Amino acid sequence: MVVPAAEGSPMTIKTSPETSYATFIKPDDHQQSGSPSGVRFSSDVTDADGKHTVTVSGSLPAGSQGILYSYKVPKPSLFAQSFCQKR
Questions:
Q1: What is the DSSP letter of 77?
Q2: Spatial strand order in the sheet of 52-59
Q3: Do 52 and 21 form a contact (C-beta atoms < 8 A)?
Q4: Number of CB atoms found within 10 A of residue 60's CB
Q5: 58: left (phi > 0), else alpha (psi -120 to 50), else beta?
Q6: How remote is the C-alpha of 66 from its chain's centroid?
Q7: 42-83 pLDDT, tens per residue?
Q8: Helix (H, G, I), strand (E, B) or coil at 5
Q9: Where do the structural domains in the chain lie, given as residue ranges?
Q10: How far apart are CA 22 and CA 71, in angstroms?
Q11: pTM of the full structure
């Protein structure tokens, strides 16, 4: 889920469930109210262990509602393994 922050602050990314399989990062873009809204996955880099670093780009203006996004897991078996190891 991408959640707007106070005006002048970067948006927040919340993931569920949290695992080591995918890490979501964002540039430190600061949000202004009235800015056009649009968020996307701008890159997805896989490391040698098969884990992903996903960059989330765009803007979600202050004062707007959060948006729920889905991420298609490229390797469900690795995702499940990272989820179970956390437990």
A1: H
A2: 22-25, 52-59, 38-46
A3: yes
A4: 23
A5: left
A6: 12
A7: 999 999 999 999 999 888 777 778 889 999 999 999 999 988
A8: coil
A9: 2-86
A10: 9
A11: 0.79
